[in-house]
Amino acid sequence: MEILKLDNIDKYYGDNHALKGISFGVNKGEVVVILGPSGCGKSTTLRCINGLEAIQGGTMEILGTKIDENFKSWREIRQKVGMVFQSYELFNHLNVMQNIILGPLKVQKRTKDDAMDEARFWLEKVGLKDKENAYPRELSGGQKQRIAIVRSLCMNPEIMLFDEVTAALDPEIVREVLDVMLNLAKEGRTMLIVTHEMAFARAVADKVIFMDKGEIVEISTPEEFFVNPKTDRAKKFLNMFEFKK
Q1: What backbone torsions phi and psi does residue 13 show, to the nearest 5 degrees?
Q2: Would the pTM count as exceeding 0.85?
Q3: How far apart are the first and last CA of the chain?
Q4: Alpha helix ranges (H) inside 126-190
Q5: What number is the average pLDDT over the span 19-32?
Q6: Nearest residue to 125 (alpha-carbon basis) of 150, 145, 101
Q7: Separation in Å, CA 94 to CA 9, 85, 91, 230
């Protein structure tokens, strides 16, 4: 069952036609990875889905709610669609626990005990149960990103968006974040992931969307895309990740 559907979405930044008639659907429990060169519209697509960018043509349907360019009621949608950013977006003056429970307390009006219990559950699952009183400045990049994922999970989203969450991390700590995401995929969560980690994309995806210059060029299974891409643009993109002596 499709719980997210984009139909002919357009987005402009001035004269730049950033998204050109983007259309695809995501089923409940499906992991969709969006690949493509930098500047092709991958992150813009996620930001439109979460209402951080306004669409300027086409329609979306998110968890049964129809959305067009005049839609304004994003508050309720954002409670159901979590987003994790490349830059963590943690509040430096708050400790880990305070960062995590802020949304559940302020937006969902949950009790502090309830919010803290769930936060501790997820902190243990991502291997950071001893960091609840630490401040962001005391954490590594990988730890900050895992905290950002926990913060999103504690809002109990039905769809999770991940926007190049390992791009700012040192190579040796990328794996600790990807492992958390792999485990979420195994639990059957609905996820849209923008990444340049090709091995991870191949392992985690149920469906691959390849974009270039604001357009969707291919939609296929990871097996088809990585072994036998249909288009020259996709083949050229994948060749960028191969090294020959």
Answers
A1: -120, 95
A2: yes
A3: 46
A4: 141-153, 171-186
A5: 98
A6: 150
A7: 38, 18, 6, 48
